[in-house]
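Study this chain:
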Amino acid sequence: MTPAPAPFEHEMCERNGGFVHETVWALGAVVLAGAFGVTTLTAQSIRPQFGIGVGRAIATGAFRSDTSGEGFNDGWTGMVEMTLHRARSPLGLRLDLVYSAHGANDQLKSDLTTALGQPADESIKLLGANAALTAALGRGSRLTPHVFGGVGVYHVTISVTAGSTTTHNSGTKLAWQVGGDVTYRALFLDIRYVSVAAVSGFPSTTFFPVTVGLRFGERSTP
C-alpha cells in the first residue's frame, strides 16, 4: 500500500488516453442506469423523496489493513439522495451523491516516513454517484425498513504529503453497493456495504458507511 514516488508520477500521466475512456464509460453506465429507471417510472405517478445525512464510513478489508498492517482509518461521510417511487408501490429508484474522507493509519504513516526519509502522511477522498433499486418492507407502518442494491462510479483521490510537498493520485472507478435503512417519520438510519474498484497500485476500497439524516417529500405506501 506504500508505492514509491515514481508510481504516483506514472499514474498522473495515465489520466489521458485509457483513463479518459474508462471515466467516460463508467459515468455513462450510471447515467444510463438512472435514465432507464426514471423512464420506467415516468407516467406512473412518480413521487420524489429527498434526503440528506452525515455519518461514519467504517473501513474494512485491505482498505483498513493489508498484510503489512498498512491501511486507512474510519472517516466521516456525507450524502444527499433522491428516491423516485410510484404511489402504493414498495419499489423505487434511489439516486445519491456521497463523499467520504479517510486518513492513513499509524503503520502506513510510519512506513511512508521511512520510505521517503521525512515525516509523511497519506489520505484518501471518495466522491461517488450511485443508482440503486430500493424496496420498502413495511406495510403502512411509521417505522419502515428498506433494502437496496445498485451500482455507481467513484472518483478516488489519494494524496501523499512529505514535508511541504503533496502528490495526488486519482482515478474514476466502478463500484457496487448493497444495504438497508430504517425510516421513522422524517428520520432515517442507513447502513450499506460499498466496494470500489482499485486504483492502479492500491487495493480495492471497501467500507461500511453508517449514515443518519432526514428525508422530505412523499413516502411510499406499500
About this structure: The domain at 5-217 is CATH 2.40.160.20 (Porin). Confidence is low (pLDDT under 50) at residues 3-21, 38-43. DSSP finds four helices and eight strands in the chain. The CA atoms of residues 132 and 150 lie 4 Å apart.
